């Protein structure tokens, strides 16, 4: 077997050995490898590599991070010699294999063409174009690559493709290449040679009108996007096609003859009904109900208009054509069909009039006159007019019949809310059952029955959209001997899914690109920025923060409305905070993420602005809400508003890259004012979105900014929110800091993970992790962090105490009292009074574990007084919990009950659900000690229920043990 490594860049970056792809799961590793490959044979210095990977804002320790990525890359490739280390940088001697193959085939084609062997030249060019697998380096995020290298590589591929299709036309293969040319022209709308090739192919296939339509679309695109008219060659080609003098050596098929008189012709121009049409029963019934002439009454004078609207690939045209065929009998005077796109309504009106039998000489020039003639021709007749792929209402209005009896069925990516009398039928994905039926019709029931799980996975990965399902089904149908699991596995990878959903002229990405390009600039920016968090549900405030740093935030609400109108965003109801929320469809999310990835510098700046604004909001919440007990304080201060969170002052953040102070601005203030007076509840409602923001920020090298946000969010939430979601926040920061070689940030995140694990993991594991944190903080000279870790380590060591024996046989660490005293000294040295409370609580725990309950009670009371002076209710409640336990241990149930009641009141005020559960359990133990078994049972059950809701396994176990004690006491009365 061939074990040589092969590099491919003409599409997503791939590394192949022995015919099997070597996965590169790290985005940074792909970027480093791609940057070396495009400079193959040349030394790339470390500083140059850092610039290419991170742009103008590399993270601290970038040099070390590059070394780590290269070490892991060599290990993944399995051949350390592939990437050479030189004194000043790195070098790959061999360039991309597919690029070398492209050059060889292009030279071979040129030699064959000069020798007059056009067939051999064409074979070489076909093989060369097959190397181009889609957008070049689509899975690599580097601004330098996307601005400096990828355009050059794309140009080489396009030149090769244009050369190939020029030869195809010379050899008479015009029919066979139309689909390919349509896809290429749609993907590169500013590329005039592609439009010219497509026009020639269509014309030679006898499709003169379509060839001219290609010119109209290209001209409109060039004017809209570049402000230019088509070049002379394209204009001359249009004239040649109009006069039928293009390439006189090739005889095109004769165009369809036009009727020369004005007699009425009842024609059916509908395309064939889709053979595999599936589902949509409700939509069909509504269309028929709205368009059927039987519903008209004498006063119903308006023409029924129905617009089928939905996201790209939803099957709008298929539904409209299927419905039109079902309605044929109700419209006996004919069924007209016109593709619109970006065509001029005047040209469409001309086609319709010719289809209705009007001679060319009788058709006026101006659109107003053509519209009047069309209305006259349709007056008092029953005609169904199907207008496909409308851009806007203004395009449709001149084409509408003037009298009732006829009806209009429109398809559009947009809602066309400004079209008077329009009834919108919105298409979403198929139901899972309908999607399964469509897939089964294409690949056969036997193959689906053989692996129903894979079939469901394929349907889900296609987002249950008909176009994607048809592509997947066609690919499977072309290979009847293979199972469905292979395609299902490839479709699970979001980064390559759109590449997989492409077959000939069918491509999901092409439709999404057209919809995106039809947006105005502000909406395109919004679509791209939201692609940073493509798989999250989001509200208007998020889009505002993502777009305002460069001045676009003021139009965020308008951009959001445009995205919904274009069916690129789906309303998702109100979120847990009561805000209207939106989401991308599964495949739209993939496309948006691609665009966000191709504009890394822009996305990084927007994401940093978002993270810092949220950090400021959490810092404001810190001022109005009590600080949690276990977590470390934030690593560095954040800019905060002058007024409380509930007053919703404009937030001030430091916006990269210049550290200038930028307000979250007046136009965002209105949105911030809508935030509830409960910021903790608001952040808890958005915890899933926060996970997306944190993970994306870390992936884009913003781990330091993200760490500041996480340092504030987790302490706010972990008393109300289960640990798993919060663990993902801490883990993302830890992993990113570790990759960057930033030990202080990494170990702070590790400590935060230990705090979250205290309520779910075994005590021995917690002790082991805390010891590691203590060693790291000691080694790194992080005095304040060390004081916290020592205090928590002591409490973890002695946690079971006298009331519950250590069930895993682990004995308290010798010297716990000395460690607790050191924690107090370090806290005072760092000037952190909250850390001093933690140290005093640890001292009380160590004394209680040694059965010195009176001394423990005195120390716990000192901690309580200090916490009270700090106005820190979480800290005071924690100290009171020790007072409660120690008082109970010495038989002072009255003092224990008083401390417990005070702690419960404090915890209720700050909505600390976890702390409340612990004190409910203490209340049960006090009631049991006082002989009130029934009260104790109720309290312990309530505590166990709270612990279960919070996922606190340790708390639930102890509450269950207390329940057992209570039940034993009830069954054995004194």
Structural class from helices and strands?
alpha/beta
- This entry's quaternary arrangement is single chain
Shape: elongated
> Span from first to last CA?
82 Å
> Hey, roughly how much beta strand do the residues contain?
5-15%
What is the CATH class of the domain at 624-659 and 691-876? Mainly Alpha
Q: What would your notes on this structure say?
A:
Keywords: DNA-binding, Transcription, Transcription regulation. This is BTAD domain-containing putative transcriptional regulator. This protein is α/β, with parallel strands linked by helices. Among the domains are: about 280-425, P-loop containing nucleotide triphosphate hydrolases (Rossmann fold); about 430-510, no CATH class; about 625-660 and about 690-875, Serine Threonine Protein Phosphatase 5, Tetratricopeptide repeat, CATH 1.25.40.10; about 910-970, Methane Monooxygenase Hydroxylase, Chain G, domain 1 (Up-down Bundle). It has 43 helices and 17 strands. The strands form six sheets. A five-stranded parallel β-sheet has the order 8-9-10-7-11, sandwiched between helices. Strands 1-2-3 form a three-stranded antiparallel β-sheet. The chain has a three-stranded antiparallel β-sheet with strand order 4-6-5. Helix 23 (about 520-530) packs across helix 26 and helix 37 (about 835-850) runs parallel beside helix 39 (about 875-890). The radius of gyration is 35 Å and the shape is elongated. The termini are far apart. Mean pLDDT is about 80; it is low at about 250-260, about 295-300, about 640-670 and about 800-815.
């Amino acid at each position: 077997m061939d074990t040589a490594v092969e590099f491919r860049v003409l599409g997503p970056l791939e590394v192949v050995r022995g015919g099997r792809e070597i996965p590169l799961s790290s985005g940074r590793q792909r970027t480093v490898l791609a940057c070396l490959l495009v400079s193959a044979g040349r030394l790339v210095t470390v500083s140059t590599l850092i610039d290419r990977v991170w742009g103008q804002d590399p993270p601290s320790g970038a040099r070390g991070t590059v070394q780590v990525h290269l070490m892991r890359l060599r290990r993944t490739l399995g051949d350390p010699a592939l990437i050479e280390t030189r004194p000043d940088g790195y070098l790959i001697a061999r360039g991309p294999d597919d690029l070398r193959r492209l050059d060889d085939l292009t030279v071979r084609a040129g030699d064959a063409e000069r020798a007059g062997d056009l067939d051999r030249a064409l074979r070489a060019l076909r093989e060369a174009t097959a190397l181009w697998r889609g957008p070049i380096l689509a899975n690599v995020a580097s601004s330098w690559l996307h601005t400096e290298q990828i355009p050059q590589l794309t140009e080489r591929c396009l030149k090769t493709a244009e050369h190939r299709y020029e030869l195809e036309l010379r050899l008479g293969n015009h029919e066979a290449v139309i689909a390919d040319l349509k896809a290429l022209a749609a993907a590169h709308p500013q590329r005039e040679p592609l439009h010219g090739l497509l026009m020639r192919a269509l014309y030679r296939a006898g499709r003169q009108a379509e060839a001219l339509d290609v010119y109209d679309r290209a001209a409109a695109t060039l004017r809209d996007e570049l402000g230019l008219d088509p070049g002379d060659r394209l204009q001359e080609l249009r004239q040649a096609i109009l006069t039928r003098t293009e390439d006189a050596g090739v005889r095109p098929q004769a165009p369809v003859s036009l009727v020369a008189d004005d007699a009425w012709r009842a024609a059916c121009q509908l395309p064939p009904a889709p053979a595999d049409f599936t589902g949509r029963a409700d939509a069909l019934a509504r269309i028929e109900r709205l368009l059927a002439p039987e519903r008209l009454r004498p006063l119903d004078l308006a023409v029924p208009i129905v617009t089928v609207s939905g996201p790209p690939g939803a099957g709008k045209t298929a539904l409209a054509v299927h419905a039109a065929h079902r309605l044929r009998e109700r419209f006996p005077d004919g069924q007209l069909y016109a593709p619109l796109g970006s065509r001029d309504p005047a040209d469409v009106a001309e086609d319709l009039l010719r289809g209705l039998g009007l001679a060319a000489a009788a058709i006026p020039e101006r659109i107003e006159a053509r519209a009047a003639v069309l209305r006259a021709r349709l007056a008092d007749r029953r005609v169904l007019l199907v207008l496909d792929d409308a851009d806007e209402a203004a395009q449709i209005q001149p084409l509408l019949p003037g009298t009732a009896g006829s009806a209009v069925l429109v398809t559009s990516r947009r809602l066309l809310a400004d079209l008077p009398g329009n009834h919108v039928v919105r298409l979403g994905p198929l139901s899972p059952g309908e999607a399964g039926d469509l897939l089964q019709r294409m690949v056969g029931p036997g193959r689906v029955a053989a692996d129903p799980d894979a079939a469901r996975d394929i349907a889900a990965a296609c987002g249950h959209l008909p176009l994607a399902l048809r592509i997947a089904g066609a690919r499977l149908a072309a290979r009847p001997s293979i199972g469905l699991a292979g395609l299902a596995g490839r479709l699970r990878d979001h980064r390559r899914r759109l590449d997989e959903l492409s077959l000939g002229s069918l491509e999901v990405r092409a439709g999404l690109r057209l919809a995106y390009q039809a947006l105005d600039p502000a909406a395109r920016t919004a679509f791209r920025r939201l692609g940073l968090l493509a798989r999250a549900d989001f509200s208007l405030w998020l889009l505002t923060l993502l777009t305002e740093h460069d001045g676009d935030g003021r139009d965020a609400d308008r951009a959001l409305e445009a995205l919904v109108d274009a069916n690129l965003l789906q309303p998702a109801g109100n979120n847990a905070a009561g805000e209207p929320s939106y989401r991308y469809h599964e495949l739209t999310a993939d496309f948006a993420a691609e665009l966000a990835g191709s504009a890394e510098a822009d996305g990084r700046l927007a994401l940093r602005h978002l993270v810092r604004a949220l950090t400021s909001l959490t810092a404001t919440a810190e001022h109005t809400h009590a600080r949690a007990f276990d977590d470390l304080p934030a690593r560095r201060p954040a800019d905060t508003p002058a007024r409380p969170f509930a007053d919703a002052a404009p937030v001030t953040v430091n916006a990269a890259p210049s550290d200038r102070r930028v307000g979250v601005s007046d136009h965002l203030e209105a949105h911030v004012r809508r935030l509830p007076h409960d910021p903790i509840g608001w952040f808890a409602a958005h915890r899933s979105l926060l996970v997306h923001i944190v993970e994306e920020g870390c992936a884009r090298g913003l781990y330091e900014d993200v760490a500041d946000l996480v340092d504030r969010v987790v302490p706010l939430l972990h008393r109300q929110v289960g640990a798993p979601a919060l663990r993902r926040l801490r883990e993302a920061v830890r992993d990113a800091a570790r990759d960057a070689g930033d030990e202080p940030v990494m170990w702070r995140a590790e400590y935060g993970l230990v705090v979250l694990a205290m309520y779910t993991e075994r005590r021995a594991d917690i002790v082991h992790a805390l010891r590691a944190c203590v060693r790291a903080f000691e080694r790194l000279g992080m005095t304040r962090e060390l004081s916290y870790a020592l205090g928590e380590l002591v409490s973890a060591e002695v946690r079971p105490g006298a009331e519950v024996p250590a069930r895993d046989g682990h004995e308290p660490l010798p010297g716990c009292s000395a460690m607790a005293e050191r924690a107090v000294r370090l806290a005072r040295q760092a000037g952190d009074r909250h850390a001093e409370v933690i140290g005093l609580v640890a001292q009380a725990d160590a004394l209680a574990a040694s059965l010195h309950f009176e001394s423990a009670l005195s120390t716990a009371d000192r901690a309580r007084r200090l916490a009270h002076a700090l106005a820190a209710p979480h800290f005071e409640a924690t100290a009171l919990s020790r007072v409660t336990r120690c008082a109970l241990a010495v038989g002072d149930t009255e003092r224990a009950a008083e401390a417990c009641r005070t702690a419960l009141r404090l915890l209720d005020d700050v909505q600390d659900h976890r702390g409340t559960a612990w004190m409910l359990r203490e209340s049960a133990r006090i009631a049991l000690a006082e002989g009130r078994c029934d009260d104790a049972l109720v309290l312990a059950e309530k505590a166990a229920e709270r612990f279960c809701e919070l996922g606190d396994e340790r708390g639930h176990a102890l509450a269950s043990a207390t329940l057992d004690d209570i039940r034993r006491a009830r069954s054995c009365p004194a």
